[in-house]
Amino acid sequence: MVVSGEIETPVVPASTMTQVTFLNKTGRVDVLCEPGESLLQAGLRHGLELPYACGAGVCGTCVARSKPNTVENLWPNAPGAAQLNAGKGECLLCQGAALKDCEILVPAKIDLSRLSDQRPARFEANLQDVKVVAPDVATFTVRLPETVRPISGQYFLMRPKGMQGFRAYSMTNFDESTDALHFVIKKVAGGVFSGKIFSGEPLDEPLEAFGPMGLATFDPSDTRDLICLVGGSGIAGIMSILAQARRVDHFSRHRLFMVFGARRIEEFFFLDELADLARTHPDHIQIHLAVSEGEAAGDTSKDVRGLSVHHGFVHDVAKSLSRPGEFDGGLAFLGGPPPMLNSCLALLLEAGLPVSDIRYDRFA
Amino acid sequence: MDELAGGGLKRFEVAGIVVLATRVNDTTRVIPPFCPHMAEPLIESGICSGATLTCSKHLWQWNLESAEMQGAAEKPLIFYPSEERDGELWIDASQELSYQFDEEDDDDFEW
After folding, report:
1. Is domain A226-359 in CATH 1.10.10.10, yes or no?
2. Is residue B30 part of a domain?
3. H/E element holding A246?
């Protein structure tokens, strides 16, 4: 066990509820934490607008400070913890759990006097309907014991029993109120969760789910054209956004420019859904497929379900297919591995899109 | 200077000190290799578009020409003194520059 602060001494994890006081110059808020519950999840449950992005130890956004021997570090080697100053008691809210009643100093820019209406919650959920939809890619459904009201583009943190940390998965569906959440997962070498999903064994053990979370969301009253640049399973949250945009008939008035990338053509999935969407407003919707390996594509004979196939990385294909001013005034959603995100971000910034109009989750 | 012609950030080592250099219009800028926010290595996360440098980690931005912060940035970049002489970039790296990564406004907070 590693404890934030200067001194590391053996400590016993709390077996009962603890009271954590989040504080800074804007105020003090007391929150009750379940044993072993992360400070972030406890604070968000309470409605605090704490800083976070991935919620899973990767991005390092949720840095706060604790006093020595008060907080257990649930994942000492978290990538997001690499730059923490342990001497000053810095910890990640998403990877810290209170060992006893304690105080947590959060960044001064967080207004602790405000409480959010949208409060994520913790559920014991059931995993259902696993379907392999492409090599090393599967979809699955998580059934919650009660309905939730997610915003399109949001994600849930999930953890099967026996797995140490939570992982973030974006919903692919959108319903204003639902107890059935649909997800997509890529097989990861050595991955505990994906190993279970792809094992073919019955998934009868409940899993822990926490959400909905995430700020890379779509407001159905938005009146901008949409730009979606995605790779592989990074398409998940974008499918939810497209579902809601379709439901409010966004594309009868606004355009969609989308490039979906995979290494090989057989690795694509959700093509029926995308082709169906493209047919609803062909004058306004462009959806292209980008294949980064294999033979050059781009001629219409290589079209798949009416979606044009092009050779190259997502950002290259987006650049070559976009007309001057294509991205002006648009709202962009990105999803995929970090190198793809960076390349697409560079493309959109070069095109003059402000960062405030580019949304994505930093899961990796 | 030719190495900076293609734009973007270029990594150099000067007297054992790693720096990143970039050229925007007629201005050459030399900075420490880390983002002042959370020490992200800018050679990987830094994106130059026009005069703007963006760290893709948390989308902090700076104008490299004016040295002003943009958007979400809360701390300024710091620059090594440098000048161009006969097509070569000279950098004053007599002292390694680094950022203070602590939350200054938290340091005087009474727990």
Report:
1. no
2. yes
3. helix A236-247
Is residue A42 within 8 Å of A124, Cβ to Cβ? no
B98 contact A CB<8A: no
Give the model confidence (pLDDT) of A190-232 as tens digits.
Answer: 888 888 889 888 777 899 999 999 999 999 999 999 999 999 9
CA A94 to chain centre: 14
In angstroms, the separation between the Cα of residue A5 and the nearest Cα of chain B is: 15
pLDDT per residue as tens digits for the range B41-81: 999 889 998 899 999 888 999 999 999 999 889 999 999 99
Chain-centre distance for alpha carbon A59 = 11
Q: Look up the pTM and report it.
A: 0.89
Q: What is the sign, positive or negative, of the torsion defined by CA atoms of A295, A298, A301, A305?
A: positive
β-bridge pairing A226-231 and A207-213: unpaired
Q: At A328, list the tokens.
A: 């002006």
Mutate to test the interface with B, among A83, A110, A215, A341 (most CBs of B within 10 A): A83
- Where are the CATH 3.40.50.80 domain residues in chain A? 226-359
Helix axes of A271-280 and A236-247: crossing angle, nearest 10 degrees: 30
Q: What count of other Cβ atoms lies within 10 Å of the Cβ of residue A287?
A: 20
